[in-house]
Write a structure and sequence with these properties.
two-stranded antiparallel ribbon, about 45% helix, D-Maltodextrin-Binding Protein, domain 2, 2 domains
Length: about 300
């Protein structure tokens, strides 16, 4: 619906309604916390904008003209609708500020986010949180579609259309089962040996997979998949069973390395460091809960 221009001044309409209720511009000005000259000027501007005389002014007070009475009746409905609009949008803003939609890569979601959310719940107990998990590429897609407010990803690169903040460093480790021949080797693994050996890998789009692919590409080599699995738990189980070597975040294999189910195999030729980042769209400002969560995640405690 196209509205005629110029639009009436809502504040002046509200002032006119108050004049009709209190019987004078002076009383209405006081109720609206403004001077009488300022109120009079606002009402005259409204009359000029509408092309109507709304008030008959006298020393004893001001009285609505017939046009003024009709305008007040219509203005009441308009002002009520505006008040409902303001209340509704405020409720929406409050709801957005009290609910945080997160997306996180599997590694971050399983091994880091729970501790961050415990601290967020202590700091902001009124905030509800929902968490969607996927690989890093999936989290970026969820942000683009507006399905999440804030994402956490890991990997060597950062999409240019997103804003980000580095949270912490992570590193990948090459692991094998305790009965794998590499578990007993005394010299470090070479990059060529790893590239020639079929490896249990995460699916394409995973930050873990991308980090390994880039590290091998930097020395002129390519990864050789034995199988691709979408679950860190499944990859650890396959490696522990002797299916083949795997490359995973150090965060995910601490317990298995301590328990002896997996053995780490060093490969000094490869740079397997990566950065875990908070990411969000440049078109969307961060809510206070999102800002607080990033601060918690960045603190390292």
């Amino acid at each position: 619906m196209a509205l005629a221009q110029p639009l009436p001044d809502l504040d002046a309409l509200d002032l006119l309604v108050t004049v009709s209720e209190l019987g004078s511009i002076s009383a209405a000005a006081t109720a609206h916390h403004r001077t009488q000259p300022a109120a009079s000027m606002r009402l005259r501007s409204l009359e000029q904008a509408l092309g109507l005389q709304l008030l008959e002014r006298a020393r004893t007070g001001s009285r609505l003209t017939p046009a003024g009475s009709a305008t007040v009746e219509w203005a009441g409905a308009v002002l009520h609708a505006v008040a409902e609009l303001q209340a509704g949008t405020q409720a929406l803003r409050n709801d957005e500020r009290s609910h945080l939609r997160l997306g996180a890569s599997l590694t971050v979601a399983e091994y880091l986010v729970p501790a961050w959310l415990r601290r967020l719940a202590t700091a902001l107990p009124e905030v509800g949180v929902s968490l969607e998990m996927g690989n890093s590429a999936t989290v970026v897609e969820m942000l683009a579609r507006g399905q999440v407010d804030l994402g956490f990803i890991e990997g060597p690169g950062m999409p240019g259309h997103l804003r980000s903040r580095d949270i912490c460093a992570d590193r990948l480790v090459i692991v094998v089962g305790k009965n794998h021949p590499w578990a007993r080797r005394r010299r470090p693994l070479t990059a060529t040996e790893l590239a020639r050996t079929p490896t249990v890998l995460r699916e394409r789009g995973s930050g873990t997979r991308d980090t390994l692919t880039l590290a091998l590409a930097e020395v002129g080599l390519e990864v050789r998949p034995l199988m691709e699995l979408g679950s860190t738990t499944a990859i650890k189980a396959a490696a522990a069973a002797g299916t083949g070597p795997a490359v995973l975040s150090a965060l995910t294999v601490e317990a298995e390395l301590r328990g002896g189910q997996l053995v780490a195999v060093p490969c000094p030729e490869l740079s397997l460091e990566r950065t875990i980042r908070a990411v969000w769209t440049s078109a969307r400002s961060l809510s206070p809960p999102a800002t607080r969560l990033i601060a918690i995640a960045s603190s390292g405690n």
